[in-house]
Design a protein that fits this description.
The structure is a single chain. By secondary structure, the chain is α+β, with helices and mostly antiparallel strands. The chain has 2 domains: about 1-30; about 35-85, no CATH class. About 45% of the residues lie in helices and about 20% in strands. It has helices at about 1-30, 55-70, and strands at about 35-40, 45-50, 75-80. Strands 1-3-2 form a 3-stranded mixed β-sheet, with helices on one face.
């Protein structure tokens, strides 16, 4: 019984620094929002909001979405996650 307790305590002590590092890194280096932009006319019937943070991968995904929707009759609005609550798309 005591051996199992020791193993549990050792496991918790080993994983705690990793969990603290992950949460601290998220607070110290938060992701920035993408700048807001629009594609096509807002008067179109179909509307697609795209909310994202800024990173190389997400910028590439947004560029692919922009290329895919540029010829469709769809209004696409790219907004940052922080500004999502202010949007009514």
């Amino acid at each position: 019984m005591i051996k199992r307790y020791k193993i549990s305590v050792i496991f918790i002590l080993m994983i705690s620094p990793f969990l603290i590092y992950c949460s601290a890194a998220h607070k110290m280096f938060p992701n920035k929002d993408i700048p807001s932009s629009e594609l096509n006319e807002p008067t179109l019937n179909k509307k697609v909001p795209v909310a994202s943070r800024s990173s190389e991968f997400k910028q590439a995904v947004n560029a692919k979405l922009r290329d895919a929707f540029k010829d469709w009759p769809v209004y696409v609005k790219f907004i940052g996650l922080g500004n999502l609550k202010n949007e009514d798309v």
